[in-house]
Each structure stands twice: as C-alpha cells, then as structure tokens.
Write a structure and sequence with these properties.
This protein is mainly alpha-helical. 75% of the residues lie in helices and 3% in strands. β1 and β2 form a beta hairpin. α10 packs antiparallel against α13 and α13 packs antiparallel against α15.
Length: 301
C-alpha cells in the first residue's frame, strides 16, 4: 500500500523558508552575542573590581548599580542619565520620519527613467560602497567645518532672529527647526541603505498594476497613494526598524557605556546602562511595530 505524499501548504513553506533565511543570524547571535549579554546582565548586579591575583572579582550589590545610574551618576556632558535617554529618544523619533520620507523620495527619483540615470545611481550609492563615514569626513573637512565654525547654517543667523522677533511662532518650535536645519547634512548622510532598500521594493512592483490603474482613470497622485504606498508598506516597516536601530547604535548612549566601563572603571554601572539601553530600544521598537502592524492590516483590508 502506497502512502500518500505529505504536502505542505504555501503559507507553511513560506514560514520554513523564512526560518532557513534567518537561521545563520540566530546561530551567530547564540554564539557571539548571547554569552556576552548574559555576562553583562551578571555584571550589572555586581560591583566589579580587579582581584589581587588578577582577573575580575564580583561582589553582589543587587540593583544598587541601577539606583546609582539614575541618582548619582552623570554623563560626560554633565547631564543625568534620564535626561540623556529622553533627549536621545526625542532625537530618534524626530529624525526617523525625516530619514524614511527622504529615502523614499530619493528612491522614487532614482527609479524614474531619465538620461544619465545609471551615472546618478552610481554617484548616489558610491558612499555606501566606500563607507558613509569616510565620505562624510571628506565632505565635512571641506564644507561642514566652515558651518561648524559659524555656529551652523541657521543657528545665530538673521533667519532665526526674524522668526523669533517678528512672528508668533513659539521659541521652542523655532529652535527645533533651526537645530534640524543645522543637522540636515548629517541626516541626509544616513539615508543610503534605506534608499537602496526602497529602490529594490519599487522595482519589484509589477508594471501591470500601474497600467491597470491608469486605464481606470487614476491620477499619478492616486496611483502613488493607492498602489505604491500599500505595496511597499511592509518594506516601510523594515526601513523604520533599521533606521531606529542604526540611530541607536550611533547614539551617545553607546559612548557613555564605554565611558562608564573603561574610562571611569565602573563596569557594573556601565553594564546597568547597557541593560537599560537595550530595554529602551526594545520598548521603542515594540511601540513602533504595534503601530505599523495596525497600519499594514488596515491597508490589507
């Protein structure tokens, strides 16, 4: 008697393929990151010092390192840890939408057909190949340094003074606008990978969908919001997560962790800041994912 073949559904096959795709990352995380993470958690609940015979000595202190972190410790910029976390979260939540929207805008331009499109793409994505930091340092040495000496593009300028004196715009909004304008060069330099991801997503959309929309009489504006945006919504979720993680990795919090652990020789406090830092990132990502999932489900309906 022949046994029938066991058939998997298409959804199950996609789940298996997805698991196989992320399996190398899972293995790498378990080998290279899981153990250091466990050690960091252990150090955060102990006073870490150098033993008489070398090595580390651990003296259990409970949550004292966490208490000291928010009560007595200050950062290298002479501010409290709580203030630093608030400023970093505010900066990331402000810059993330700007980076995502600008990267989508650049991808839409790069995806259009025009003469010299290949050359434009090579020039735009060259920093990704050479390394963003290298290109930014080269441009800052020639242009950014002059802006830094003058206090920024808009800070302490007549534009800021006119806005403050002759308009009813609140000072906080004016200062936020000028600070963003001063940092626009840094923000633009962080959109390379996101633009590349969006460009791949746009090129994967079938042209027949646009042809059907045009036959139905849809305008370019309607095609963009009713066809393009819903089809790249899942990619937008990935871009937002990547941007948030990238901004956190390059934030001043990582530098403070190093400063506490190695410059101030407070490994326990530095480890506590690392754990707080991780939970802060996970909490922010969880909120963003929850919001994006609701938006994606609404578009799918």
């Amino acid at each position: 008697m022949k046994m029938g073949r066991f058939k998997l559904s298409h959804r199950t096959k996609r789940k298996i393929n997805g698991f196989i795709f992320v399996l190398p990352f899972v293995i790498g995380f378990l080998i290279f990151f899981a153990m250091p993470l466990i050690q960091t958690i252990r150090y955060s609940f102990n006073n870490v010092s150098v033993g008489e015979k070398g090595g580390m000595e651990l003296e259990f202190s409970g949550i004292q390192n966490y208490i000291n972190l928010f009560t007595s410790e200050i950062t290298t910029k002479s501010s409290t840890i709580l203030r630093m976390l608030f400023d970093e979260n505010a900066s990331i939540l402000t810059n993330t939408p700007i980076i995502v929207v600008f990267s989508l805008f650049m991808a839409l331009l790069a995806n259009r057909k025009f003469k010299g499109r290949t050359a434009v793409r090579v020039i735009f994505f060259l920093p990704i190949v050479l390394g963003i930091d290298v290109v930014v340092d080269m441009l800052t040495a020639t242009t950014g340094s002059e802006l830094a000496k003058s206090g920024g593009l808009f800070s302490q300028s007549w534009i800021q003074m006119m806005l403050l004196q002759y308009t009813s715009i609140p000072k906080s909004m004016v200062m936020s606008f000028t600070n963003f304008a001063d940092n626009i060069f840094t923000v633009i330099s962080q959109v390379g990978v996101q633009t590349l991801v969006y460009l791949a997503a746009l090129q994967s959309i079938s042209p027949s969908l646009y042809e059907v929309a045009k036959i139905e009489g849809a305008t370019n504006y309607e095609i963009f919001w009713k066809v393009t945006i819903p089809l790249i919504m899942h990619i937008t979720m990935f871009v937002i997560i990547y941007t948030i993680v990238d901004l956190f990795l390059n934030s001043s919090i990582a530098a403070e962790v190093y400063s506490f652990a190695f410059d101030k020789n407070k490994i326990g406090v530095g480890s506590a800041l690392s754990i707080v830092y991780i939970f802060n990132v996970l909490l922010l990502l969880g909120i963003v994912l929850l919001i994006m999932r609701k938006l994606v489900k609404r578009d799918d309906k």
